[in-house]
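tool=predict chain=A
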Amino acid sequence: MKLLLIKLHLLLNKTQHFDFLAPLMLRMYLVPVFWMAGSKKVEGFDSIVEWFGNSDWGLGLPFPFIMALLATATEFFGAIALFFGVAVRWFSIPLMITMLVAAGSVHWDNGWQAITDPSAPFANERVIEASNKLAIVKEVLQEHANYDYLTSSGSVVILNNGIEFSMTYFIMLLALLFIGAGRYVSIDYWIALKLYQKPLVSNS
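tool=predict ok
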C-alpha cells in the first residue's frame, strides 16, 4: 500500500511539467471580465463618474472622478497585462482592491448570490422573495408567450447581483498574486529569465 501511494505521488509530481497551465487559465478567464468592464467604463466615463458620486441613485463615493479614473484604468490596463502576462503580480493588487470596493459598495446589500437560488446555503430574504417573483414571471410567460421558445437558450432567472462574482474574481487574483503569471506563456517569465537568469514566477 505504501509503495502504491509513493508511485501515485511520483505520478502526480510529473504534472508539474504543465503547472504553467493553471495561471495561464486564470489569466485568460479574467481577461474578458476586466476588458469588458474597463472598456465600457471608457466609453461611458462621464456617466460612471456621475454614478460613482451621486448618493441618490449611485454609489455616493468621495472623489468620484478620481475613483472612476482609477477603476477604469485598473480594469482596462489590468486586462491587457493579464493577457500578455506582464506585471501580473503588481496588477493583481489594484484589481483585488477594485473587487473589494465593488463587493462592498455595489453588491454587499444583496448578499452572496449572483443569481437567485433559494436552495443555496447563503440564500437571504431577498433571494427567497425573488424566487416567488420568478414563479410569477414563469407563470405569466407560460400563459401569454411561447415559453419553450423563450427558454430554449436557457432558464429564466432573476439576477440577485450579490458579491459572489466579485469575490470569485478576488480569489483568482489572489492566487495570481502568489504564483505569478506562470512559466513560458508570459512576458514576466521571459523578462525575469533574461534579467536574473531565473524566473520570478512559480515553476513548481
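The mean pLDDT is 91. The chain has two domains: 21-111+162-204, 114-160.
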